[in-house]
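STRUCTURE REQUEST FORM
Protein name: DUF1540 domain-containing protein
Source organism: Paenibacillus brevis
Requested output: structure tokens
Priority: standard
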Amino acid sequence: MAKDVLCEVNSCRFWDSGNKCAASSIYIVAHKEAKTSDATDCKTFEHKDN
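Status: completed
Returned output:
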């Protein structure tokens, strides 16, 4: 498992400096045969304004 998770979505409340994800866990949904990042969705995302 990766020690650091990088994320460039700075509108997410879990986004931290250095493009780090500060969420305690990550939930990602993907098609069974995902071949590109567009075929996945990060369900951990929460907009900063929420």
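Reviewer notes: The mean pLDDT is 83. DSSP finds no helices and four strands in the chain.
Form closed.
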